[in-house]
Amino acid sequence: QVQLVESGGGLVQAGGSLRLSCAASERTFSNYAMGWFRQSPGKEREFVAVITWSGGSTYYTDSVKGRFTISRDNAKNTVYLQMNSLKPEDTAVYYCAADDHWRGPIVTARTRYDYWGQGTQVTVSS
Fold first, then answer.
1. CB 24 within 8 A of CB 7
2. What's phi and psi for 31, nearest 5 deg?
3. How many of the other CB atoms lie within 10 Å of CB of 24?
4. How many CA atoms lie within 13 A of 35 on its CB side?
5. What does the pLDDT read at residue 104?
6. 123 pairs with which residues across the strands?
7. Which of 14, 31, 94, 123 is deepest in the core (most CB within 10 A)?
8. Measured CA angle at 80 (ends 41, 61), to 5 deg
9. Sequence-ordered list of residues with C-beta below 8 angstroms from that of 65, at least 6 positions apart, any chain
């Protein structure tokens, strides 16, 4: 069972940057697509970004394109989400997730992900 631990959240002013990290407990992480999701109070958990097992392909929801970058370091069992030009509407709890289909394709559906971290709070003040 893969365990995921997010870090890097915090309070930042609009226009600022944060980098989230997600550390995985197992080396098999390197064969899984990894995603980031976020959830605001009263809203459904929504897809933010995904990266394939090799890091060769990425995909983003429209609202973060050009501002967020997902990346991974398989040697460190870690996936990152660099968030720039943050907006108040980016405020949410951010979760990383692993899709344990062996070297699977990009997926954005929340139900396709098998393992989840505990989440890290990101708050953007105006």
1. no
2. -105, 10
3. 24
4. 27
5. 87
6. 11
7. 94
8. 55
9. none
